[in-house]
Amino acid sequence: AFHLITFHSPFTHHLSPPIFFIFNSFFIKLIMTFAHALTISALFLSILWYYVISPPWFCSGLCCFNDKFCTQIFLEGTVEPGYEQVVHILEKSLTVGWDLGASLYAAVDGETVIDVAGGFKDRQKKNVYEMSTLNVIFSSGKVIEAIT
């Protein structure tokens, strides 16, 4: 398809068609190679900018690439057997940095099955998120109002 592209310049109008085709293909390949190199460079620079120069608030350093390099966050509280996977997901969320601090309470048939908390209250990770940390909860009554 590229051999159908023609352009006129002072040094190509006198070339015979086979030579012009080779000349034209060479420049098209050169331009395409440059375009690919430019695209790859832009991608590399954007990744460098996102993770190194201005890392997102939810991760830092190698933790952004692999959670094995993250600081493990442990939750305090109680978990009944059979609900450990739910707590593990919350721990992973806090470890990787998707959440900064959180608490989770769940009851089944009036029995407490999960009551845990962990993480941090601030982005500097100085203040630990504890079981007694107060939360602001928005729109929590809408479900109950819709049921009644």
Reconstruct the topology from this structure.
Layout: H1 17-53, E1 76-79, H2 84-96, E2 101-108, E3 111-119, H3 142-147
Antiparallel strand pairs: 1-3, 2-3
Architecture overview:
The chain is of the alpha+beta class and 148 residues long. Helices cover 38% and strands 14% of the residues. It has three helices and three strands. The chain has helices spanning 17-53, 84-96, 142-147, and strands at 76-79, 101-108, 111-119. It has a three-stranded antiparallel sheet, covered by helices on one side. A hairpin with a 2-residue loop joins strand 2 and strand 3 (111-119). The longest helix has 37 residues, at 17-53. It is elongated. The protein starts with 16 loop residues before the first helix and ends with a helix. 8% of the residues are buried. Mean pLDDT is 76; it is low at 1-7.
